[in-house]
């Protein structure tokens, strides 16, 4: 298939980004915003990666489905994602959950979220519909995904990541034959089936689906009429389709955006530990995720802010940051920041020490605070002399401490601490 044919097929494809996730396992980080709207990497939101993949792949008809705690996400999309050109039929439309004459319920599953918006999708007459999760971190050229889909004349193609068998129990797992046609699909199996030719690995679904449009319309209507279905792609729709339709696996290693010799990068930052680890990886000399690849930019909205500032230089007080990312609008004043990531408008005051800290926008770290292996939530006011990361039992009593030894600090927790609760 020629590149021109793939280019034109991308223009006839519409993307549905499912961005309504609550992110319960992230605790206070998503108390007032949805997981796709959570800040990541110093200046981005998680959803920016999926959206940028669409734009860079020339798939520029994008519908974003929102539901829980969507206000901050809607603002971000409004301010940062209005640059597509409607004159060329490029757009990003936001579809909040809403009541209608046909339905008075919120989305009951991923398939239902798409089904309730079929009229909007159909109005644009796409040939293919790309269904995407808006809460994962990865860089992928969807055109290569689309090329596989078209060459195999698939009704449905599922993007799959090869993961060790022990980890595959947390995913939907596809069993495929030698041609990568899927012959079974099971959610979170106890005994995952290996990839052909790779006995230690399984095909894990990435939650990325490419459908023939007419096929999708018919199958979602069928699923919506089934009272026994939970209306979820992984639990209901895909297992039903596998023995009845042409369903194929697409190997992510064919379409991921390469970063030197590193393995394909995909992260579900759905827990506090996973979120901390993915952010901390960016402080490495050669991180697994390359944000400095100007051929595949990650677009976002960012306030117009001054450059980061480091002040005071003397024998007893220096403002320094080592092996760290420091975003615009930050001031490190007589403090030491080591292997940490500071989001925008963070203040770190004299004699404070941060090590392996992820500090979200607007946080203020007062004098003599010592923070190790922490996440500080946005707009927190960390009091003078607070020590976190040196006494696990004390950290767990005052804050949320994870199984991986990361301590999450939120303003709610700090307020309770000051009130003696």
UniProtKB/TrEMBL annotation:
Residues that span the membrane, as ranges: none
Chain ranges of the Glucose-1-phosphate adenylyltransferase/Bifunctional protein GlmU-like C-terminal hexapeptide domain: 306-409
Organism annotation: Mesoterricola silvestris
Subunit record text: Homotetramer.
Any one Gene Ontology BP term: glycogen biosynthetic process
Site location (Could play a key role in the communication between the regulatory and the substrate sites): 67, 106
Protein name: Glucose-1-phosphate adenylyltransferase
Cited CDD domains: ADP_Glucose_PP, LbH_G1P_AT_C
Lineage: Bacteria, Pseudomonadati, Acidobacteriota, Holophagae, Holophagales
Keyword annotations from UniProtKB, A to Z: ATP-binding, Carbohydrate metabolism, Glycogen biosynthesis, Glycogen metabolism, Nucleotide-binding, Nucleotidyltransferase, Transferase
Residues noted as binding alpha-D-glucose 1-phosphate in the record, renumbered to the chain: 107, 172, 187-188, 205
Reactions this protein catalyses: alpha-D-glucose 1-phosphate + ATP + H(+) = ADP-alpha-D-glucose + diphosphate
SUPFAM superfamilies: Nucleotide-diphospho-sugar transferases, Trimeric LpxA-like enzymes
Family: Belongs to the bacterial/plant glucose-1-phosphate adenylyltransferase family.
Pathway terms, separated by semicolons: Glycan biosynthesis; glycogen biosynthesis
Enzyme category, top tier: transferase
Role description: Involved in the biosynthesis of ADP-glucose, a building block required for the elongation reactions to produce glycogen. Catalyzes the reaction between ATP and alpha-D-glucose 1-phosphate (G1P) to produce pyrophosphate and ADP-Glc.
EC number annotated for this UniProt entry: 2.7.7.27
Gene: glgC_1
InterPro entries found in the cross-reference section: ADP-Glc_PPase (IPR011831), ADP_Glu_pyroP_CS (IPR005836), GlgC_bac (IPR023049), GlmU/GlgC-like_hexapep (IPR056818), NTP_transferase_dom (IPR005835), Nucleotide-diphossugar_trans (IPR029044), Trimer_LpxA-like_sf (IPR011004)
Domain Nucleotidyl transferase: 15-283
GO MF: ATP binding; glucose-1-phosphate adenylyltransferase activity
PROSITE patterns: ADP_GLC_PYROPHOSPH_2
């Amino acid at each position: 298939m020629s590149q021109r044919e793939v280019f034109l097929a991308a223009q006839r494809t519409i993307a549905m980004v499912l961005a309504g996730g609550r992110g319960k396992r992230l605790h206070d980080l998503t108390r007032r915003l949805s997981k796709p709207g959570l800040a990541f990497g110093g200046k981005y939101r998680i959803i920016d990666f999926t959206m940028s993949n669409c734009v860079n792949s020339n798939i520029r008809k994008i519908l974003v489905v929102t539901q829980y705690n969507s206000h901050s996400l809607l603002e971000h999309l409004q301010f940062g994602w209005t640059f597509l050109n409607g004159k060329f039929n490029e757009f990003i439309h936001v579809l909040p959950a809403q009541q209608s004459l046909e339905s008075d319920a919120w989305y009951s599953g991923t398939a239902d979220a798409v089904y309730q918006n079929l009229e909007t999708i159909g109005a644009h007459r796409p040939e293919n519909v790309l269904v995407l999760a808006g809460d994962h971190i990865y860089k992928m050229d969807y055109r290569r995904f689309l090329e596989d889909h078209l060459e195999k004349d698939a009704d449905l193609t599922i993007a799959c990541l090869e993961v060790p068998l022990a980890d595959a129990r947390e995913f939907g797992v596809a069993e495929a034959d030698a041609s990568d046609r899927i012959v079974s699909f099971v959610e979170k199996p106890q005994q995952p089936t290996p990839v052909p030719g790779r006995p230690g690995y399984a095909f894990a679904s990435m939650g990325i689906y490419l459908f023939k449009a007419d096929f999708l319309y018919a199958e979602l209507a069928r699923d919506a009429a089934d009272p026994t279905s939970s209306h979820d792609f992984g639990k209901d729709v895909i297992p039903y389709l596998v023995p009845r339709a042409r369903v194929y696996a697409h190997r992510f290693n064919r379409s991921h955006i390469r970063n030197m010799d590193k393995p394909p990068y995909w992260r579900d930052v759905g827990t506090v530990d996973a979120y901390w680890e993915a952010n901390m990886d960016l402080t490495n000399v050669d991180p697994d995720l390359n944000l400095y690849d100007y051929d595949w930019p990650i677009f976002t909205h960012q306030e117009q802010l001054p450059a980061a500032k480091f002040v005071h230089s003397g024998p007893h007080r220096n403002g320094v940051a080592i092996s760290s990312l420091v975003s615009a609008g930050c001031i490190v004043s007589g403090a030491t920041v080591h292997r940490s990531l500071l989001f925008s408008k963070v203040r770190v005051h004299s004699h404070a020490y941060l090590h392996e800290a992820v500090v979200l926008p607007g946080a203020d770290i007062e004098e003599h605070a010592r923070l190790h292996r922490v996440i500080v939530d946005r707009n927190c006011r960390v009091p003078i002399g607070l020590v976190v990361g040196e006494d696990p039992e004390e950290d767990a009593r005052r804050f949320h401490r994870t199984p991986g030894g990361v301590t999450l600090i939120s303003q709610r927790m700090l307020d309770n601490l000051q009130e003696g609760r």
